[in-house]
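Please predict the structure of the following assembly.
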Amino acid sequence: MACQSGPRVLPILGERDFVNGDTVYHTIPDFEFIDQDSNKVTKADFKGKIYIADFFFTHCPTICPKVTKQMMRLYDKYKSDDRVLLLAHSIDVRNDTVGRLKEYADKLEIKTPKWRLVTGKKEDILGIANQYFSIAKEDSESPGGFDHSGKLILTDKQFRIRAFCDGTDPVSVDNFMKDIDALLLEN
Amino acid sequence: MHYYLKISFFLLLLSIFSCKTDTYHQGKILYENFCQNCHMEDGTGLKNIIPPLANSDYLKNNQKSLVCLIRHGINDSMIVNGKLYKQAMPANLKLKEGDITNIINYINNSWGNNYGIIQYSEVIRQYENCRNLPNLAK
């Protein structure tokens, strides 16, 4: 990368189609979830923003606390930057009620519009994980009953995926922060 | 003779340094595998959800009940450094007495903690209190 000049441009990830000579990129489809304050959350809430998505559940006995700790770093870094939002999807929709998400958010001392913890229909949550190229599925063999990746996914203003990192690894998240900053320069 | 003296001095130095840096090596590996996901590499836990082990009055003051806590988890609230924590801790039934000894000695003496050494015999003694108990949390 030594020869690169100017700000780094992030790739646009995922499959692409070519329609009438235009490139059509993979984008996150419409969604409708409920956040910790019982607000409906849709794509409209992220219009004109870039955001970081992840998948977790509140009683997760494995990697989630580590990933949440890294999300906390991002929250702290971009707390006063209105261009960046965080969206954490609970994959255990049966146990993670709005009340439980609210309790979790309060304990993390996070503010709602900046970092939304959402729940919804099971198939919608597990379905959208695929759209973010993340893994989230029920698995009775896994601790806590779910198998999922600790990925953090960066989505741009056009709802295209631009970067991801391993949310259990602070060094990976350090680099991810550089990606976020690069995307902010682009917009 | 001089040569052998030099070599043995070098070996002595080597052994001192390698032992010093590796005091709680087994405990560290076990901690990484069984505890670190929640309590974190630096023992700080997670906000008001998972209590810290680093500089933790609870850890310091509950040395007599640590073995069963680690092995069976807890499904009750606890106060650590003045803060209330309610998240359940899962059981660790795979951990044997020797593993628990190593883990306690690691967490008791890491991140600035200086909570002393637990003997294997003390772990066995505490373990008797919960040997046949069902899991306290799942």
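Residues 24-132 of chain B form a domain with the Cytochrome Bc1 Complex; Chain D, domain 2 fold (CATH 1.10.760.10). Chain B is about 50% helix and 5% strand.
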